[in-house]
Amino acid sequence: MKKIIFTLAAMTLMTTACTNKQQTTGIPLENLDTTAVPQNDFYQYACGGWMANNPLTPEYSRFGSFDKLALNNLEQVNGLIQELAQEKHQTGSVAQKIGDMYNLAMDTARRDQEGIAPVQKTLDEIAAITSREQLSVALGKAMDYSLWALYVEADAMNSSMNILNECQAGFALGEKEYYLDTDEQTTAIRNAYVAYVEKLFGLFGFDDAAQRAQTVLRMETRLATAAYNNVELRDPVRNYNKMSIDELQNLVPQLDWKAYFQAMEIAPDSLSVGQIPHLQEAGRMLADEPLEDLKTLFTWQVIDGAASYLTTEIYNASFDFYGRVLSGKEEPSPLWKRAVGVVNGTLGEAVGQMYVAKYFPEENKARMLALVKNLQKALGIRISNLTWMSDETKAKALEKLNAITIKIGYPDTWRDYTKLEVNPAETYYANLQRAAKFEQDYSMSYLGKPVDKTKWYMTPQTVNAYYNPSSNEICFPAGILQYPFFDMSADDAFNYGAIGVVIGHEMTHGFDDQGCQFDKDGNMVNWWTAEDKAAFDARTKVMEEAFNKIEVAPGVHANGAFTLGENIADHGGLQVSYLAFTLNEESKAEKDRLRTRDGFTPAQRFFLAYANVWAGNIRPEEILNRTKSDPHSLGRWRVNGALPQIGAWYDAWNVTEESPLYVAPENRVSIW
Fold first, then answer.
1. Fewer CB within 10 A of the terminal residue: the chain, N end or C end?
2. pLDDT digits (tens, 9 = 90+) for 262-320
């Protein structure tokens, strides 16, 4: 389990209450499907028009309102990058690095000519391994293959200091169910994966490609079998196992860990092992699997990881599986989009600095901060009024709420890219390897040092938001601070229903089933009485079971335990933002709450704005993929699954017992 960061999936943010009577409702009526009955299918009613007007194009497996915003941001960033790419710049300057990385990404003719030569050196190094004794150093030096992953983050039990963390890796499909489930759909995906592995080995010139593909499947299945599933990965306590390096050596004696870390050029005195069974199984594999089979797996990891950055033929083979089979895409994204994605991934904050300078109005930051404060007050009121929680635990909860750090727009200090070399005379792949090493060195530079509280975990141009429990902070990048999440020209009903819920969502993450295990300083300590925690767990169980009942595809149900944290956050965001909306000056008067605009009351517009955030189309393959891999519920169910738990929605839309969405009051979720 990598760093616990709770995101909104792809939505989030923007500014505060407005009182201008001339403002719009912010809700385009063409977004609606008025042939649908809102009490029967609110998602279709609120979003059906948007869905009809924004059909899936071949490059997308899912396209929603936040994807549309992300596309707009991508086009803006592309314009900024292209200006740099078309000119010569001083070697070593940020402009040179951005421009040359983009040009390297765009030059498919050069990559077609180079063939597999860019990765040959790495493949030769793997082939040269002749004994198990060499594995410790080889794995320590490797940037392209491993059976686990390492990263640096705040120590969960001492949040002011950074620690080395280990987490499970080594199986390309990511989710263990792809290797173990035997239903028809998963079996078909697994068979397609084996065919892809065989094809890629063939494209790299291996004449025993079929045999190697079976070896890869067998070894990845062995790793996946020992891995935690996504529900187990959500348990912070279970995934924190701090130990000394000597204890690590005893736990996994098959590797010389001191030699391994020396090859990495780091010297940790301790680390936290994330998933002990997986790491122990990886160690056993290093000792008992045939050396040639281990080398086959490592070779596969290299060529699979490089496939998107080599020839057109190799890229297409990778897309055919990961794009078409796994998610149902029909065509790859245009080359320029992929190129911008690579530049964002390697020089993200440098690009973000340009983006903010041109596209982020500074007044948005102040407005956003004011809205966050309003939501913070509303959550405080709801906590104070809880009937199931003791005063003792309430005091701790309020203390944590008031200690939340708020980050908006962009970091105060920009990242330094001086040590990253981008050399256009070298191959695209070589430059990406160097960028990966730069990122690893950056991460490891924090090892054993105090946590940098100013560090951001998203770039400013990102269309998303997050809550970080280890620092008790919420972050709203500039990229999300625009329509459909915030509209400066729209009234309060819209902005509280959209960005207000997003803010409440991120705040509630501090009090979901994972976040509640961290205190105001980000330490994983219990601040609950036993009775209160039992009451909390009982209430979250209602949420889990409600989503377990949702059939997302024929015979396929949502995973209420896996999506629990995000569902709690959606529920809290709705409750908190609606309260903040009703407490707002413009909404206090009864006449304002009943006043209609475009045929809808303010309360109705609040819920329409919320639903429009999740408007989108999705392919059947991607529904199955995300049900296995995404901790967020699908967009349709973040509306039709969430709103029936909210009393104010029933009042606003006159939902009665006849509605198929109706949930009796005594059976509804009631947490924060």
1. N
2. 999 999 999 999 999 999 999 999 999 999 999 999 999 999 999 999 999 999 999 99
Average pLDDT over residues 535-558: 97
Distances, alpha carbon 394 to alpha carbons 389, 391, 543, in Å: 7, 5, 21
**SS3 of 666, please?**
helix
Mean pLDDT of the 542-570 span: 97
How many Å apart are CA 309 and CA 324, to the nearest integer? Answer: 18
Q: pLDDT tens digits, residue range 234-275? A: 999 999 999 999 999 999 999 999 999 999 999 999 999 999
- Measured distance CA(152)–CA(265) in Å, rounded: 14
To the nearest whole number, what is the mean pLDDT of the chain? Answer: 94
How far CA 616 is from CA of 22, 26, 53, 569, 589, in Å, comes to 30, 18, 10, 20, 35
Query: Would you call 524 helix, strand, or coil by DSSP?
Result: coil
- For residues 553-581, one letter each, b for 16 or more C-beta atoms within 10 angstroms of the residue's C-beta and e for the rest, the string is eeebebbbbbbbbbbbbbbbbbbbbbbbb
DSSP assignments along 302-336, one per residue? HHHHHGGGS-HHHHHHHHIIIIIIHH--SSPPPHH
Other beta carbons within 10 Å of 269 = 11
Query: Which residues, 6+ apart, have CB-to-CB distance to 7 below 8 Å?
Result: 464, 465, 466
- C-alpha of 22 from chain center: 38
Task: Look at residues 401, 651, 623 and name the one whose alpha carbon lies nearest to residue 510.
Answer: 401
Tokens 């790491």 belong to 279
pLDDT score at 9: 58
- The answer to whether 563 and 633 have CB atoms below 8 angstroms apart is yes
- Token pair belonging to 543: 């949420």
Residue 283 CB neighbour total at 10 angstroms: 17
Structure-derived torsion over alpha carbons of residues 386, 591, 15, 396, reported in degrees to the nearest 10: -10
pLDDT digits (tens, 9 = 90+) for 139-157: 999 999 999 999 999 999 9
First-to-final CA distance of the chain:
27
Of residues 14, 16, 17, the one with CA closest to residue 588: 17
- DSSP, collapsed to helix, strand or coil, labels residue 656 as coil
